[in-house]
Amino acid sequence: MKSFRDHQGPFSPSRPKDIQADLDIKGLSLRWGSGFALNNIDLSVRTGEIFALIGPKGAGKTSLIDCITGELTPHQGSIIFNNEDITGREPHYIACLGIGRNFQDIKILPEMTLLPNLLLARTCFYRHNIFSAFFFSSRVRHEENRNRGMVELLIEMFQMQHLRKSPAGKLSYGMSKRLEIARALAMEPGMLILDDPFTGMTQQEMDEIKGILSELNKISNIAIIIAEDDMSDAVEISNRVAVLDFGVKLAEGAPDFVENHPKVTKLYPPKG
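Above: the chain sequence. Below: its structure as tokens.
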């Protein structure tokens, strides 16, 4: 597999000093009917961290991600990204600030191949108008070459070359997940948020994605949030961990601290 180290561009070793991706969540609450999907959540993720967000189904992980990315508006609290309050802002605005995500329920264009699915995420990087596009000006050619180069890199990095001409709807579930992660990265985000990314993957596929994410984080200093039901899948590559249950944060900190926290061991008993 080609290494990110071999590429000069947004994922190259020269980029870390340019990235800032600091997230601060204070007192965040979200109501569903008479109950809480999220209840007074405080959370912080710093530039360059891999952060695991763990909890069983219904714990509030996806609700929290939806609030961060503008899909839902919390009833209380604030979400600050790089010193800007993004609470309740539109998803496209937050995406263009540098927060990329996948979705738990796969959202791809099933009739289209890999290339258009990935190019869709490059919308923030198009600066030309209809007039210049019609005449295919040098600026348009430059943008097209750069955008095409990025998605070609991701197809190679995620080892999907053999599937490039296949409609996305015919991909296996695991490969569809892989495509969604690649599409989120096509936005060149400073922060990548992955909701349930490993479901449907074989152990080999899972290990490959963990390797890609770890290398990407190390080389480009991108912050990564991985939300998973299982404690082991994401924690293995994470710097810090938070555990949610019924919309309440049980613990947050280093993996060893969280895994041995009394509230967490009740939810996830030690193995062996």
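The chain has a mean pLDDT of 87.
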